[in-house]
Amino acid sequence: MTNRVQQLKSSMLAHPREISLERALLYTASHRQTAGESVLMRRAKATAYILDNVDIAIRDGELIAGNRTVKPRSGIISPEMDPYWLLTELDQFSSRPQDRFDISDEDKQIYREQLYPYWVTRSMKDFINGQMSDEVNAAVSTQIFSINQTDKGQGHIIIDYPHLLNNGLAKLIAEMKSRCAEHQDNVFFQAGLLLLEASQRHILRYAALADQLAERCTNDTRRKELRSIADISRHNAQYRPEDFRQACQLFWYMNVILQYESNASSLSLGRFDQYMLPFYQSSLSRGHSPALLKELLESLWVKCNDVVLLRSAGSARYFAGFPTGYTVILGGLTENGRSAVNMLSFLCLDAYQTVQLPQPNIGVRVNEFIDRPFLLKTAETIRLGTGIPQIFNDEVVVPAFLNRGVSLEDARDYAVVGCVELSIPGRTYGLHDIAMFNLLKVMEIVLLENEGSAVITWDSLLRQIRDKIRHYIKLMVEGSNICDIGHRDRAPVPLLSSFISDCMAKGKDITEGGARYNFSGVQGIGIANLSDSLHALKGMVFDQQRLSFDELLAVLKANFATADGKNIRARLINRFEKYGNDIDEVDNISADLLRFYCKEVETWTNPRGGHFSPGSYTVSAHIPLGAVVGATPDGRLAGEQLADGGLSPMLGQDSNGPTAVLKSVSKLDNYLLSNGTLLNVKFTPATLAGDGGLNKLSDFLHAFTKLKLQHIQFNVVNAQTLREAQQRPQDFACLVVRVAGYSAFFVELSREIQDDIIRRTAHQL
């Protein structure tokens, strides 16, 4: 690591995280002045006002300018989305269990006296709450499912970076002016033009600041760097980039600008090694030093960690550890179906090996054409133990998109948003994280409803579970669509939409259905516990008849605290096979019920004319979702977490080795899970040591590809190291681990999530 990159990394992490009210105050000031105008124009003018007036800074040693807040890793708020949770939690931010922030007493007073009173009754949350039926609210309150994205702007999307970088802002503005002239009544085009011009001005503010800093700078080397930032910024405000540094700078400026528009999670970065390759090659042809270009990329990777999201305490339990969702995808396929790996694919991993921070959340696409050197480079990076990169299988994902009506060329161009959510860059608005569905909670309800039944059978129990899943999916869709409409009517994003096909052709914001592909992604959670529970229940009650249904239910309701409860729990855990060990009898329960869930979900449509798309991943929600489910027939205690990941086996139950885990997951209909899946695997560092370890991991990834799994990710760390980090967090401040579909600093996670990671089965190859 160069001194510069070490300094950038250290200085970013040196200060406590704070909450900034600046965006909220500027947004509100503009909003007060635009009453009576369209929502699109009010949003555009508020964002433009922020871009023109927000404080900016260029930090010491930076090669790439642009910061969402002057202070590093500060959280920003969006009271126009939901002012209520902010008021409730003002005094808790610095002491809550997960994702803490400092906020000054002065800012608390400003929020209470200025921001909150203005946004009460005006927010998107007010609209959504006003539309929800009592039945949906009741289901949400019991956490049968959750409705997400109700308190911030919608992200989980990838803009068309090639369109930005290959044209430049001046050309895009000229095109937008032409659209405005041709469609004079179209407010979407007017809002887009206003924001593109505001983006130019914002970039020029950095040019002016760099010039001012250069004039005062006494270090010749740094003065030249600041002059270069100024020149590049002036160029980027008008023209397309000509080399790698200019491209990285415009790329980052637009990321910051889009954050001001929506303050959203997972404005992801797409296939970075594909669209940035021409600019990297241009720099090489101009004689730019490869070492300097690597340092530039490392600086950009550090920048990705400067943006952290402020979530409510409840949301932070579901998305613990500040997952911003700056997800990068490497490799994959070209338009004609060949390997897309290139020199920049390797450099992106090399740069990450130097930086080793949670962001960007790098993923590698694998397929039958992937070459061994890149697979080994991928394995080498995984072996570092940060959980990066995660792996996606083209042999499954491309057909999954074809099954959803995506064209072959677009399917081959897929990337990932947020954690593991599958998307088509620049063409999809997928509401990928709109809801989570607690399958185990549904089973619990069915079991309790059958208490005292004299006619309960195995087949009738399964039928009732399917009926109940169908019933609650309908309610989940109802709630998700209300949230969808809330974003359309209260929180459109005209700047972001101008970089999504086919919004320009339709003249519509993405929230109105302007994108080419319009999905709503919902996650089915708890499939491992569901199959383990039903398999054990079938054996104990219906096959072996050791207990009646009501006798088992009584033990579960008592959380195994009956006279024979301890022995019954031991039998449920140890005498019945568990998902994740390549045993058809239990794995097929998972396959059948998850397929049923997917087929029910895909029948529903959203207000944008698209279909719902099923997935199975938890982020860190397996802990709060488990907290609302009582004891279950797999031997799980009341309130205990669910299986992590989404498709991962329950903690400690995968006893037949990692290949058996792959084979169990391969029995699921992975082609239906088009919104994304998540499989966690943990290895001991010793098993991956040396060249032999890298080759074993590469072979394991080949098996993953051949078995047609969609996703896998790894933690490579000793449990003892993690326990030491719990005891001495000050000595492990930069220890990065895999949580779910993202990585985080271990010491910034709550104790319950730390313990979950420690307890995951550590395999050997």
Gist of the model:
The chain is an alpha/beta fold and 765 residues long.
Question: Would you mind describing this structure in some detail?
Answer:
This protein has 33 helices and 18 strands. With 765 residues, it is an alpha/beta fold. Strands 4-5-6-15-14-18 form a six-stranded mixed beta sheet. Strands 3-10-12-13 form a four-stranded mixed beta sheet. Strands 1-2 form a two-stranded parallel ribbon. The protein is globular, with a radius of gyration of 26 Å. The mean pLDDT is 96.
Core attributes:
single chain; 51% helix; 6-stranded mixed sheet; 33 helices; 765 residues; 4-stranded mixed sheet; alpha/beta
List the helices and strands and how they pair.
Blueprint: H1 3-13, E1 19-20, H2 22-32, H3 39-53, E2 75-76, H4 84-89, H5 105-119, H6 124-131, H7 134-141, E3 145-147, H8 161-167, H9 169-182, H10 187-216, H11 220-236, H12 244-262, H13 272-275, H14 277-285, H15 290-303, H16 313-318, E4 327-331, H17 343-355, E5 361-366, H18 372-382, E6 390-393, H19 394-403, H20 408-412, E7 415-417, E8 421-423, E9 428-429, E10 435-438, H21 439-449, H22 458-490, H23 494-497, H24 503-506, E11 517-518, E12 520-525, H25 527-543, H26 549-557, H27 565-574, H28 584-601, E13 612-615, H29 622-627, H30 658-666, E14 680-683, H31 690-706, E15 711-716, H32 719-727, E16 736-738, E17 743-745, H33 751-759, E18 762-763
Parallel strand pairs: 1-2, 4-5, 5-6, 9-11, 10-12, 12-13, 14-15, 14-18
Antiparallel strand pairs: 3-10, 6-15, 7-8, 16-17
Helix pairs in contact: 1-15, 2-3, 3-10, 6-22, 7-22, 9-10, 10-11, 11-12, 12-14, 12-15, 15-17, 17-18, 18-31, 21-22, 22-28, 25-28, 32-33
